[in-house]
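Just scan my protein:

——
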Amino acid sequence: MKILKIEYLIRAGRFGESQEFEEIIDDVEKAILSVTWPPESSSFILYPEKKANGVVPIKKNCMEYLQQQDWKLEHPMPIASRKKPGKIDAVKKLEDDRFFAVEWETGNISSSHRALNKIAVGLLDGILAGGILILPQGGCTGS
């Protein structure tokens, strides 16, 4: 899989300029580039059939790569002040004991909103220092 565009919604403060942040970006970029489909392939080709390209198998290599780099997968956010927002696909614990989050979505706009909401709640509660939402080319659909 290749990276076509990186869009920073907010990049403020010292953390966004730190070596720790640069290492996170490097981890995530390499994780995305590790994604192949079908699994035995060295490239990324979607099948033009309904239900032939599941989310879990497609993001598998990405998540496995992050896990090898000391990221925790399916991590529940420890937020006491609000309704539990659900697990984050991957988090990396930072030097200051906060986390950095990665969420992977495949195009459903509702899922993307939920993912960004989880990241926003984590930022507001001081649990997260930042987060990344990985989306397919073309953005989200209303399906």
In short: The longest strand covers residues 87-93.
